[in-house]
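From the shared-data thread, chain only:
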Amino acid sequence: MRLVEELAAAADVIADELAADRMPVAARQPLLDVAQDSTEVERSRWLSAEVVLAQVRSIIVDLLQLTGMDIDEATGAIPLLPKDQPRLP
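Structure, as tokens:
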């Protein structure tokens, strides 16, 4: 839940910047922080939890593009999920 709250806060920064008629580059670092935090989320054996994690990471890419990154930069800025992290039983 914390990850979604962080993402919402970053989206609020984007909204504020756009409302002020500015490019929302101020939201870039908060979005990158959420992306990094997404690699530390405990993994689950439940598909729905994994889908939510994937959706959050996808939304981060979309929002990074609003800050001026192109698609390659935005996807490249998302850290890979650790392969060795055990899934919860």
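The mean pLDDT is 92.
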